[in-house]
Amino acid sequence: MNLLRSALAFALASASCFPAFAESAKQRGTTVFVANGCQHCHTIRDQGGERGPDLSGVGRTLNKTQIRTQITHGGRQMPSFGDILQASEVDDLVAYLHSCRDKKPK
């Protein structure tokens, strides 16, 4: 129940990353993010873990190709998810993360 509550809180907090267009891929990307435990290491909009970098503004700093490469190949301390996620899940996750464009706090 606690995991469900966390996932719901995360989804609601990150909902403002979604522009009005193409919501379905970005919504599916949120589901992929939560279902694969990404929020245990990464934070988006003050929700999630602190082990990995805050991804609230990742769409401002990385392009879609760079985001896809990080997901599929891993690197730094992040494991590779290329053999775990289906291609459509990676596409959705990339769409979601690229939509997260918060500015870094000064």
UniProtKB/TrEMBL annotation:
PROSITE patterns the record matches: CYTC (PS51007), PROKAR_LIPOPROTEIN (PS51257)
Signal peptide: 1-22
Listed name of the protein: Cytochrome c
Organism the protein comes from: Tunturiibacter psychrotolerans
Domain Cytochrome c residue range list: 24-101
UniProt xrefs under Pfam families: Cytochrome_CBB3
Keywords: Electron transport, Heme, Iron, Metal-binding, Signal, Transport
PANTHER family: CYTOCHROME C-553-LIKE
Any one GO molecular function term: electron transfer activity
Organism phylogeny: Bacteria, Pseudomonadati, Acidobacteriota, Terriglobia, Terriglobales
